[in-house]
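step: validate -> pass
step: tokenize input -> pass
step: predict -> running
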Amino acid sequence: MAVRPPSVDDALLDRLLALADLPWSYRAFENAFVRNGWHHVGDDGRPVIGWLDAWPVGGHWLELGEYPGCGDDADAVCDHPQCRADCSVVLPFAHVTDGEAPEGWDGDGGAREYDAAWDRMTERLSARLGSPEPPGPRTHEPESASRSVVWSRGDAWIVLLDGDDPFSYGSWQRAGIEVRPRSDDGAASPPGRIAEVLDLITERQNPFKAG
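step: predict -> pass
step: emit ->
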């Protein structure tokens, strides 16, 4: 069964893509998340953002990687390739599974509808970003994706990717839009610590599990 969360409208898509224009500092992303209403408020009144987790955003989930920046300086823009490899924000827009759809999600059509959602999002991103980057050694290639389309915008890659959902114990396949920083040489970012923490993440409550 192919399932999808509420539709990704133009406003949500544009807010996600605008992250590519930010400096990769903690403060820049925190301010953007607060402007977008993508944060919680902690007991101390400060914004809370769930990096390295599935993070709820108005009926959707963002898959958040490591927080941007470097060290304790919230304004620092980290250029270390290893740090940048861990940073990413992914907005899933379609899933396919043999299980039940989470409450409030639509289900229909199986793989055919899943592929149609992929094609529609490819067209929407191309309309905003132009032609994608050709495959090659200087274009980011997601390690865990079964297919991908990559655009370059400023200091970031915008990636349409298809692969296993990291929060569903391997029982879901998901298509998503990823925003991630480029590495110094423009090539694909080297492996970071994300893979090492995914096992810990999946031990938490599964946000895609029905009921």
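step: describe -> Residues 96 and 142 are 20 Å apart (CA to CA).
step: cleanup -> pass
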